[in-house]
Specification:
Helix content: 40-55%
CATH topology of the largest domain: Nucleotidyltransferase, domain 5
Distance between the termini: 26 Å
Strand content: 15-25%
Shape: globular
CATH architecture of the largest domain: 2-Layer Sandwich
Number of domains: 2
Low-confidence stretches: none
Number of helices: 12
Number of strands: 10
Structural class: alpha/beta
Bound molecules: 5'-O-[(R)-(carboxyoxy)(hydroxy)phosphoryl]adenosine, zinc ion
Order of helices and strands: EEEHHEHEHEEEHHHHHEHEHH
Length: 339
């Protein structure tokens, strides 16, 4: 079965052709048209600009994915598209295109929750993964820990109280005038650092409830930068900038992994899945491998191109979800709830 997967929940427009085989999904093509240059000057995504750019990109993105796969449109058996959550103007472009194509071709259609997409990115490398699994989904908009019963069922265990972890990277890089998106830039700077700056203090919660918080990290970054004149324009080759990026990265990765042992024991996890854009982070990947090894968990972190938003993860989820009989009444939903 060939599935066309489409994703445009934020700023990237992506399409992929995935072949679902008896031994799992096989990636036939993946195209992603980035809008980083468009939003870079603003230091973050401008929703109106993103939606208008998607309208220009959607047709070419889909035809490039079909061409690269060498699969004509008439051989596509199913279309999967992100239904939400996300920026509604952005969602609507691929959402409307997918419904129109499914109607014209008279083929099954499935709307996918964005986080189920990130989860199913892990199916490419680990289709035979054992459940229950502990799932850390960490991106620019989400920092959530789930118990997964299978590839379609997630139960929330804990989430951030404020910002997502990706926001800490993006805003940290912005304060240092390093560019956008911040995660890959902070990662590259941190890897060049000969030593880390002072560590950041983890937040403490008075109510004692398990969760994360990353907004204080932004304030701490701001104070550190203000304390060193010129640091905000010193650039990525400056040793102090590199040391600060290394401390930021060490803080985020250690905070993210802290609740893993306790939760893995509580749900009797067989596996650990980490996905979402922040799962590209080199420190997080290295530390997660150690944690999984210690806990004797099978670790599944998709390769970086499948961690950030992409059409392949949506196609992979679309292969395991039930198709919608009559999708014409379905709509994109910026606050789509996971059920
Ligand atoms: O999953 P994603 O592509 O989009 C959302 O659903 O948000 O994640 C984007 C986030 C951004 O915050 C970006 O800075 C972060 O993922 N990111 C990284 C790395 N690559 C991307 N964060 C840390 N280290 C990286 N190497
Ligand atoms: Zn995402």
């Amino acid at each position: 079965m060939f599935i066309l997967g489409l994703e445009s929940s934020c700023d990237d427009c992506s399409a992929a052709v995935v072949e679902e085989t008896a031994s799992g999904p096989v990636l036939r093509s993946l195209v992603r048209r980035s809008q980083d240059a468009l939003h870079g000057p603003f230091g973050g995504v401008v929703p109106e600009l993103a939606a208008r750019e998607h309208l220009l990109q959607v047709r070419g993105t889909i035809s490039d994915a079909l061409d690269q796969a060498g699969i004509p449109l008439r051989r596509i058996d199913r279309i999967a598209v992100t239904q939400g959550p996300g920026l509604v103007g952005s969602l609507l472009t691929t959402f409307s295109a997918s419904k129109a194509m499914a109607w014209r071709m008279n083929i099954p259609w499935v709307g996918v929750h964005h986080l189920l997409g990130h989860l199913n990115a892990a199916r490419f490398a680990a289709p035979d993964l054992q459940f229950p699994a502990l799932v850390l989904l960490v991106s620019g908009g989400h920092t959530h820990l789930y118990r997964a019963l299978n590839w379609t069922r997630l139960e929330l265990l804990q989430k951030t109280r404020d910002d997502a972890a990706g926001e800490a990277f993006d805003k940290g890089a912005r304060m240092l005038n390093l560019g956008y998106p911040g995660g890959p830039i902070v990662d590259a700077c941190a890897q060049k650092a000969l030593k880390a700056a002072l560590p950041f203090t983890p937040p403490k919660f008075r109510d004692g409830k398990a969760s994360w918080s990353f907004s204080g990290l932004k304030t701490a970054m701001k104070l550190r930068i203000a304390a060193e004149p010129g640091l905000d324009h010193a650039g990525p080759e400056d040793a102090r900038v590199q040391a600060l990026c290394r401390s930021l990265q060490e803080a985020v990765s250690s905070w993210l992994l802290k609740p893993i042992p306790e939760n893995a024991a509580a749900i009797e996890a067989q596996s650990l899945i980490i996905s979402g854009g922040v799962a590209c982070n080199s420190k997080l990947r290295a530390e997660a491998a150690k944690v999984a090894d210690n806990l004797d968990l099978r670790l599944a972190i998709p390769e970086p191109k499948l961690c950030t938003d992409n059409g392949a993860m949506i196609a992979s989820a679309g292969a395991v979800l039930a198709v919608v009989d009559s999708p014409w009444a379905e709509n994109a939903d910026s606050d789509l709830v996971l059920i």
